[in-house]
Amino acid sequence: MTGMDQSNMAASGAMQNHPASETNNPLVDMQTMTPTPKLSDPGIGLRDNGRRVLTYSDLRSTFIDPDGREPGRTIELHLTGHMEKFAWSFDGIKFSDAEPLRLKYGERLRITLVNDTMMTHPIHLHGMWSDLEDEDGNFMVRKHTIDMPPGSKRSYRVTADALGRWAYHCHLMYHMEMGMFREVRVDE
Prior knowledge:
metal-binding; Cupredoxin; Cu-oxidase_C; copper ion binding
């Protein structure tokens, strides 16, 4: 298409897989086909406006990855919704129907989030740190909340070092209230 900047699109054949729970789901009205990390994108309204805006690609930790271990497994979750129905969820499953995410105490894992919606979602995991990775899987910075722009795919490492039941949700309260919430259980 003339004038369409495709420089940030994933390589041909790198189509995103989606969980079966999104298929024919009345609570899911869109899916991202070629998500990108967008770590250097300041966001809508902040691009090319003559001001410098801090982005995730500008952040660097003053310390190395505190855990140091490679993740033993990866959990991929899709941020889903239906704009007209005001329905928000993880993997097309609202909180009231979702099983908890189960982590083993002491394990190191990677969580990969794919934002299939047209809204930004600040995702927060209670009780544990989120160690944001760059596009190559290198440790960047430790965060409490990971901001997920539309069409993005970002990964972070978590060490399950806090036993118990923890909230995992979008920090936009109406998204959380409408179902973009999960329970994380850390068991021995």
